[in-house]
Amino acid sequence: MAKEISSKNLPLGKIIITAIIYMIISQVIHFIGAMVTMTYYMDPQYHKVWSVFMMPVAGPPPLSFTLLGLAFALINASIFVSVYAIIKNGIPGQIPIQKGLMYGFLVFLLVGVSFFLALLLLVNLPINLLVYWLFEGLVIYLINGLITAKIIK
């Protein structure tokens, strides 16, 4: 019979700390990525693609975009870490490094690759930018998988 999941099995304090670390790491990686790919964001032919949150007018995003980005990153991080805490015993690997890399890679396959394929069909952006975002996602999921597995043992 499957083991029941209860709130006592979820280390809330560790989940919150890990989610905050995840949020910081992902935002740093996204910031670096934005600097590397800035020409795409500044290209007038793609201005209509960006949301009004990101670019209400031409130029750099407003502070509200950064704050929303942090809030959304914390929500995503909380989900990522909580799911790991729930399924960690079913993830292949004997040590946290193996489990973290496997979890990060599986999430990348489920979320990152699916998102990439959907973007190919839905938005008019250069393939190079989409591939860069795919790689950026892989790095984020792998690093945060390692950190999550190390903290949520």
How does this model look, in words?
With 153 residues, this protein is mainly alpha-helical. It is 70% helix and 0% strand. The protein contains five helices and no strands. The protein has helices spanning 12-36, 38-42, 63-87, 96-122, 127-151. Helix 4 (96-122) runs antiparallel to helix 5. The longest helix has 27 residues, at 96-122. The radius of gyration is 17 Å and the shape is globular. The two termini are 23 Å apart.
Summarize the structure.
The protein has 153 residues and is mainly alpha-helical. It is built from five helices and no strands.
The N- and C-terminal alpha carbons lie at a distance of 23 Å
Find the structural class using helix and strand composition. mainly alpha
Compressed to H and E, one letter per element, the order equals: HHHHH
Please tell me how large the radius of gyration is.
17 Å
